[in-house]
Amino acid sequence: MTRPLNAKARFVSDNCFAASLIEAARQVTAIYDTALRPAGINVTQFNMLAAITLLQPETISALAAAIGMERSTASRNLAVLKRNGWIERREANGGPRSGAISLSPGGRAVFELAFPLWSEAQEHLAQQLGTDQTAAYRDVLKQVRATLGDDAD
Predict the structure, then answer these.
(1) CATH architecture of the region 41-130
(2) Is 88 helix (H, G, I), strand (E, B) or coil?
(3) What is the pLDDT of residues 8-23, one digit of tens each?
(4) 3 state SS of 2
(5) Distance of alpha carbon 144 from its chain centroid, rounded?
(6) What is the per-residue pLDDT for 152?
(7) What is the C-alpha separation between 114 and 120, in angstroms, rounded?
(8) Are 38 and 46 in contact (CB under 8 A)?
(9) Three-point CA angle 120, 45, 59, nearest 5°
(10) Residues in domain HTH marR-type (predicted)?
(11) Could you give the CA distance from residue 42 to residue 58 in angstroms, rounded to a whole number?
């Protein structure tokens, strides 16, 4: 016997991992984006600047892989960072598609300006979620990413 359509929809609504993660991501992103707005940056851009600082990636593909983002999405986001004057690229022997991506002086300045705002949002979330639970939530998300890895493709 099959379930009526409404029962199936209710089951999906109550149990879908993707829907739950997407909604939680939207809520968390909104908190960070609101906090970072005075610096003129959003949380995706802020995290890309952090990743670029740490990795000094040679290609967009390397950056995308390191931060778990599709190459096309990373490319679009990098275009915004470049347009804002926050990153620069030193062309290497591989031509215009290779060469270390790094923060420009403007990128370093906006990162420094945004960092305390990000820290406040981070602390706010820790208080909202419960300080003891915050590390547990982060660990679960790391475990999900590690377990699924490339299976998500």
Answers:
(1) Orthogonal Bundle (1.10)
(2) strand
(3) 999 999 999 999 999 9
(4) coil
(5) 15
(6) 55
(7) 10
(8) no
(9) 140
(10) 14-146
(11) 24
Q: How far does the chain reach from its first CA to its final CA, in angstroms?
A: 34
Report pLDDT for 91. Answer: 72
CA 45 – CA 79 distance, rounded (Å): 11
Q: What is the pLDDT of residues 77-117, one digit of tens each?
A: 999 999 999 999 877 666 655 678 999 999 999 999 999 99
DSSP code per residue over 108-136: HHHHHHHHHHHHHHHHHHHHHH-HHHHHH
Q: Name the maximum alpha-carbon separation found in the chain.
A: 65
Q: What percent of the chain has pLDDT over 70?
A: 92
Q: What angle do CA 75, 76, 77 make, to 5 degrees?
A: 90
Record the pTM. 0.85
For residue 64, the one-letter residue type is A
Given a contact cutoff of 8 angstroms between Cβ atoms, the answer to whether 89 and 103 are in contact is no
Residue whose structure tokens are 């547990």: 136
In angstroms, the CA 110 to CA 134 distance is 27
